Amino acid sequence: MTVGKDANASWLILRYLPTAMFSVRMTYATNKGGKTLLVPTPYAVKLALVDACFRAFGANKAEARAKQVYELIKGRPVRIGPPRHCVVQNTFIKIKQEERGAPRGIYAPTIAYREFCYYDGELRVALGAGGMSDQDVRDLTEIAARVNYFGKRGSFMQFMGAKFHHGELPRGFTCPESEADIVNGGYRSMHHLDDFGQALIQDPHGFDRINSYGTKPSSLGSYRVLVPTMLPYRYMSSGKHFTHYQLVE
Asked: φ, ψ for residue 106 (rounded to 5)?
């Protein structure tokens, strides 16, 4: 069984082994109510690949190569193949927060709700590879090996390898709601995952908008968009401190 619409598509599938708890807060989560998404977002994956260029190449080449990678991947689809099991643990942690009305720079201790995903199995990242040259695939594979986390810093991943896939992806990968086979695709949950918007893709200065040190904004809704995305995770059970999801295969 496959999902998606384009049988002529091709994908570069990157394999990672999670080595720490994963977390990436939902876009509209508050500082004190940090619910996590169950999978990395396409936006996070693309930024991770661009960021990895600064570790893969020397200082005199890094920015130029990062821009090349950005141009190569900015308009390509990203699908996530999550591990077989995901257990979301919820807890409260201590944080420092700037108090309302207090002088700037004065922080007070408080508590915040946080969620962390424990994965059992490999995480797969499928990047649309239509029209890529063999050299592009080799370069992206080399850069992908330098990615060591997705989402929240500390959500460490170990690169395990890459392979090229022709045709539609099999079941077990995320898919935008607008393209998904809702009945037969094996989807049981949905998240809004952020991705590069068309305004960003078409902007000749788009790289400056994703650059943390850039001066151009990357506003939500135009340059960064939320895409309703179907997930192949089924709710299994829950308790006071956890929720268990299992991959639909």
From this structure: -100, 120
